Each structure stands twice: as structure tokens, then as C-alpha cells.
Amino acid sequence: MSEPTSEFCAAYACPLIGVYGAGGKWYCCCHRNADASRNDAITLAINSHRDLADKAVLLRRTNGEFFELENQLVELTRDAGTQRSMAAASVIGPTHAPQHYSESEK
Ligand SMILES: [Zn+2]
Asked: How far, in Å, from the CA of 102 to the mean position of ligand 1?
């Protein structure tokens, strides 16, 4: 079995490369210090800046100047999940998840 996503951040659906080890998993610059309850919100924020994320991944792979770009992403995602903590509590659970969240899709 191949693991095409093994180089990526352990947070679900995160497009960034995992470079910071924690508890046997690898996380990106945005997820590494985040509370697990905020992971999805952070991933969403990263994906809304997908152009920056793609560039950061490319720079990581080519040993480019990724630091500034990743700092930017950290800033952009810093508040993700925190200001919506009230709403997050009432988010529908897995049993009511819409079909497009199905894991069988991949
Ligand atoms: Zn991540």
C-alpha cells in the first residue's frame, strides 16, 4: 500500500507538508500548536488561501524561502476556529454529516 499523503500534515485534508513532529504525527506550521478542536477551521482557512499554501509546499520541496510565506499562513489562520467556538459547539455531528464528507470519496 502506498501512502501518497504521508508527507502532508496529519490534520485532516490539510494541504501543507507536515514538518513538525508531535505525538508520532507530523503537522504543518499552522496546525502544530493548534488545539485539535480547531483543526478543521484551520484547514478551511488554509484552503481559502490555497495559492499561498501551494506556494509554501513548492518552496518546502525545493528548499526555497518558505519561512516568510509560512509565517504569513500562520498569521492568516491564527484566529481560525476561535471566533466561531460558539457555533462550533452546535455543528452537526458525524451521524448527520452531508454526503460530501464521506470518507469513501477518496
Ligand atoms: Zn496542517
From this structure: 20
pLDDT (tens digit, 9 = 90+) per residue, 15-67? 999 999 988 999 999 999 999 999 999 999 999 999 999 999 999 999 999 99
Residue 34: strand pairing partners? none
End-to-end alpha carbon distance in the chain: 15
pTM (2 decimals)? Answer: 0.71
Nearest-angstrom CA–CA distance, 99 and 86: 24
Let me know if 70 is exposed, middle or buried by CB neighbors in 10 A (0-12, 13-18, 19+): buried
Helix (H) or strand (E) holding 88: helix 85-89
Question: How many angstroms is it from 5 CA to the middle of ligand 1?
Answer: 12
**CA dihedral for 30, 33, 36, 37, sign (positive or negative):** negative
